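hey so u asked for the seq, here:
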Amino acid sequence: MFFTKEEFIKDQKVIAKYFLNVLETDKLPQAILLYGEENAPLKEVGMYISQSIYCESKSLACNTCQSCQRFLNGNHPDFTLLDGKNALIKKGDIDQLAAFYSMSNLEDNKKSTYIINRIENITEDALNALLKFLEEPNSDVLAIITTTNRHKVLPTILSRCQIFQVQAKDPILLVDNYKGEIPLDRYYYLSNLAYSDKEKEEINNSNEFDFAYKSVINYLEAIYKSKENSSLSLFVDIVDLFKQVSKKSGFNNNKCYNYFYSMLSISFKDAVLEKDNPLKQITSKLAKYKTNLARAISFLMDMDFKLQANLNFTLILAKLGKIIEE
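ran it, structure tokens below
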């Protein structure tokens, strides 16, 4: 179950109000864009909206009717999910999607939905195919698109969407209420990176996260010890060690890079804002370098890590080190 109706109305007030009206009037928008932070429940909100479209109550999903049960069991015939968080979305994926939803719905007189999760992880050919598909809207089909970077979404996509921000839970509050065994500084990063407890656990147990976490802590300590010489840590403690650890069977390089970039951005932002968090012992010592950190944050945000991280890792670190040391 993604949400109860009561939870959804409480946690996502604006989206809930909009879709209560949509379901009452039975008029679907052509497409919606859901955006938010890495730890926002983007896919979960999209799934709950889709479930609500199919729900027999004609309101936000009840979780108990036959249609809801089919959806929750993953066997609703009129629903498709393309998950860019797990794999790059390619043109063939969009072609199959378009072919399916261009046909009559499998269940007569029923509305349909599909989700493209993390549209930032899509090839150019696939994006062009999606644009072409969206240019020929079907009034009975709702497209749900999600992203963690709204500003990277093409204006031509945005112009076809109703746009909503998905609210995320405050990682500080999550840490304050956490009773598990994961160290709090580590759990704080996890709470910034993922929404569900299951995903947090999976990330925490991965070699990619473990290496990225240790690398971030080492680099932050190197900066406050000697900002002018901190690049040495990037190349000795990170690049050289990464060459060794990446040889492990099943190690995902890009996933490791992205954890590293994300945790570094989180740390730099907290230092600039002087936030009270489990990392304060380190980030408070970096606050005097706010100008450098702010520039580093902008640099990290501008990089298209998702598609190019594997090719640019060493170059990115070199540029990052220069920004910090200036």
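The chain has 16 helices and five strands. Strands lie at 31-35, 79-83, 112-117, 141-147, 162-165.
lmk if thats what u needed
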